[in-house]
Specification:
Elements (H helix, E strand, L loop, with lengths): L1 H50 L8 E5 H6 L7 E2 L2 E2 L1 E8 L4 E9 L2 E2 L3 H4 L2
Antiparallel strand pairs: 1-4, 2-3, 4-5, 5-6
């Protein structure tokens, strides 16, 4: 009986350790894409500040990656030599401006990318 409890304890240890390792790998993979979203967001903020394109209350503005490239606010949007596409939605709720980056890469896509990309 004692031997079985050792075996189960060891299997439980392997299961928890394995799931933790998978979680760290997944988190590191997502970090690259989150950094890319932040890069797009910072470029869009600079673009909006320089062009004075602030939305009115309850209005939204969409800034595409192509616009940012044409105006030299961003050079590329890539991860691991894979080119990505993206856009930024800037909204104004009456008190603050909200910036939300959406990117689409071969292995990753921001949640609601297709719904917002109309």
């Amino acid at each position: 009986m004692r031997r079985i409890s050792y075996i189960w304890g060891f299997l439980l240890f392997l299961l928890v350790g394995g799931l933790t390792a998978v979680g760290f790998v997944y988190k590191n993979k997502l970090k690259k894409y989150e950094d890319l979203e932040n890069k797009l967001e910072e470029s869009a903020k600079q673009y909006v500040d320089q062009k004075f394109l602030y939305p009115e209350a309850n209005q939204k503005i969409k800034i595409t990656l192509e616009e940012l490239r044409n105006e030299n606010f961003i050079d590329s949007l890539s991860v691991d030599d894979e080119e990505c596409d993206g856009f930024e939605i800037i909204s104004h709720d009456g008190a603050t401006f909200q910036y939300k980056a959406y990117i689409k890469c071969p292995d990753y896509q921001t949640k609601n990318y297709d719904k917002k990309n109309k």
